C-alpha cells in the first residue's frame, strides 16, 4: 500500500466559475499535483468516474444547480474522495451542513495559491485542516445558536424575514404574547453574548450569522 504522504495528490474541483477552475489547474501544474479536471456539479464529476480513494475535491459551497453543500459532501465521500469546501463568502447554514457531513476542511477563495496547495497536500495526506480564526468564529456562533431552543430559533427565523408577530403566532400556533416573550428571551440571551438585536436589521443579521437563513432569503 502506497503511503498517503508520499503519493502525489490527485485534485479536482467542482465549481461553476471556469476562472476559478483555471486558477486551480495552474496551481496544480506548478506544484506537482495531479490535475483531474473541473466540473460544474457533483453529479457531473461523479458521472466521469475518475475519483479514487483519497482524491481531494475542492467543492464550491453554492453551485448554480441548487444542490446543497452537505448533500454534495456526502456524495463525494461515498465515492472515496476527501472534500475541502471552497467558498468566497460565509453562509453559516451551508457551512454547518458541510461540517456536519464531515468535510475535511474549509478554505476561503481569497487564500493564496500557496495556502490552497498546502491544504490540498494536508488533506491528501490524511490530515483534517486545522481551524483558523475564521473557522473558530463559525464554531463559536454555532455554540451560541445551540443554546437557543427550537422554538426560539423558529421565532428568530420568522422575525428575521420580516414576518409580523401576529403572523408568526399563527404559523407557529403559538399565542402572540408568547411569541413576543420568546423573542425578548432571544434578545436577552444574545445580549449576554454581546450580540445586539435591537431592531429588524439586527434580527436579520443575527439569523444569517447563526445559519438560520441564507442571505438569498431576504424579502
From TrEMBL:
Pfam families: Response_reg. It comes from Buchananella hordeovulneris. This is Response regulatory domain-containing protein. Transmembrane segments: none annotated. PANTHER family: HTH-TYPE TRANSCRIPTIONAL REGULATOR YHJB-RELATED (PTHR45566). One of its GO terms (molecular function) is DNA binding. Coiled coil: none annotated. Residues 10-124 form the Response regulatory domain. One of its GO terms (biological process) is regulation of DNA-templated transcription. Keywords: DNA-binding, Phosphoprotein. The modification 4-aspartylphosphate is found at residue 60.
